[in-house]
Amino acid sequence: MTPAARAAAAIEILDLIIVAAREGGAAADTIVQRYFSTRRYAGGGDRRAVRALVFAAIRALGECPVSGRAALIGYLRAADPGALALFGSGGHAPAARVPGEPEAAAGLAPEWLMARLRARFGAQTEAEVAGLLGRAPLDLRVNRLKAVRADVLPMLEGAVALDLHPDALRIESGVNIEALPAWAEGLIEVQDAGSQVAAAAMDARPGETILDLCAGAGGKTLALAAAMQNEGRLVASDTDRGRLSAMPPRLARAGVSIATPRLLDGNREAAALADLSGACNGVMVDAPCSGTGTWRRNPEARWRLSPARLARLVAEQARLLALAATMVRPGGRLVYVVCSLLPEEGREQVEAFLAEHPDFRADGPDHVLTPHRDGCDGFSIARLVRIG
Questions:
Q1: Phi first, then psi: what are they for 227, rounded to 5°?
Q2: Boundary-marking domain end, from 168, 191, 214
Q3: What is the total count of domains within the chain?
Q4: Which residues are catalytic?
Q5: For the CA atoms of the chain, what is the radius of gyration?
Q6: CATH code assigned at 187
Q7: 3-state class of 66 per DSSP?
């Protein structure tokens, strides 16, 4: 493909991503993969170049553009004005530009989101949001049931230990982890270092009863099982059958035998968890959220979010926290985690919960992690203790 043809392909893909963002469709990565699955003529170099162009444009534009063409013109205007000559250059090039046609403006995020992030970060907002739009590294967690970090490091070329968590490693992003012997033997798992910190906030101990309420595919479940030294009872529940079904092979490879996946029916979770009511030493609530802390991985997510959707997420978080509270025994812990940096989903959510639940207290201030400051995904983490 010529540079002009690559630009035209990028516009087509950006159009699809913009529509998906507005209508709740597939993620950008999925759209890129689908696009090239029907265009076998594009070689590996073309695919990489087009993908890089698409994601560079997404990261550079705060507001959702009106079209893929407006997105690419706006991005190139700021980043590479000379490339605008590709438009109308013939062949498979995009059509020539028309005076006055829409051009997307550079920015970090939609203004309504920037206002909320300023409430969180103040004078550091620009730097913090810019950090959210970089490229995410590839982090690993060493499985303490089978190894310690010092043993695994020599097995992974180029890997470095991270200070953020004693089990955390970082390796070059392009490495095929599943082809590594350390992965096949269950010595490592892919897990962002911030997510490891979130799981550690539970301070799970051997012999305890722990509920991972929104377990998904089990990333934090595996970390909790390792902290428990595979002793005790660990229930990993979720309402998403597809994600939960991915857990058993991961548990087997990691050597985890104490974790039991449990499928829940949305809004009827209490009945399915009745045996755990008031019986848990700890409950992990890794709640559905806006995902602002994961924009490095999904930069188009900031185009998907709206005030109405945020309000629905906040309401669901409050419902799950209230449910989790009924599962915690006196003296037990409730750890609330969101991969979001918005005050409504973090500090304000916790304050509202404590106001409604006087039998709980905060165990220290909420813990906020950011890519700019901590080099990991963005998280808001709070540990609460049931009094009595």
A1: -65, -30
A2: 191
A3: 3
A4: 339
A5: 23
A6: 3.30.70.1170
A7: coil
The pLDDT value recorded for residue 34 is 95
| 262 phi, psi to nearest 5 deg | -140, 120
Helix or strand run (H / E) with residue 273: none
Contacts with 325 (C-beta within 8 Å, 6 or more apart), sequence order: 334, 353, 357, 359, 360, 386
Specify whether 268 is located in the same domain as 385.
yes
Element (H, E) at 160: strand 160-161
| Mean pLDDT in order along the chain per 10 residues (388 residues) | 94 98 94 92 90 97 97 97 95 94 96 95 96 95 97 95 97 91 97 97 98 96 98 97 94 98 94 97 97 95 96 98 98 98 97 98 95 97 95
The answer to whether the CB of 379 falls within 8 A of the CB of 339 is yes
Q: Which residue reads 């983490």 in tokens?
A: 381
* Local structure of residue 329 (DSSP, 8 states): E
Residue 168: beta bridge partners?
141
Query: Please, what sign has the CA dihedral across residues 164, 169, 172, 178?
Result: negative
Query: Residues 148, 47: one domain?
Result: no
Residue 121 belongs to domain spanning: 109-135+193-388
Tell which residue, 242, 284, 279, 282, has the closest CA to residue 263.
242
Tell me which amino acid residue 196 is: Q
Contacts of 344 (CB under 8 A, 6+ apart): 116, 310, 314
- Distant-in-sequence contacts of 268-275, Cβ < 8 A, 24+ apart: 269/213, 269/237, 269/239, 269/323, 270/323, 270/326, 272/237, 273/211, 273/235, 273/237, 273/323, 273/327
Q: Are residues 361 and 300 in the same domain?
A: yes
Of the candidates 280, 179, 183, the one whose C-alpha atom is nearest the C-alpha of residue 235 is: 280
Give me 279's structure tokens. Answer: 């019986």
* Residues 261, 237: Cα–Cα separation, whole Å: 6
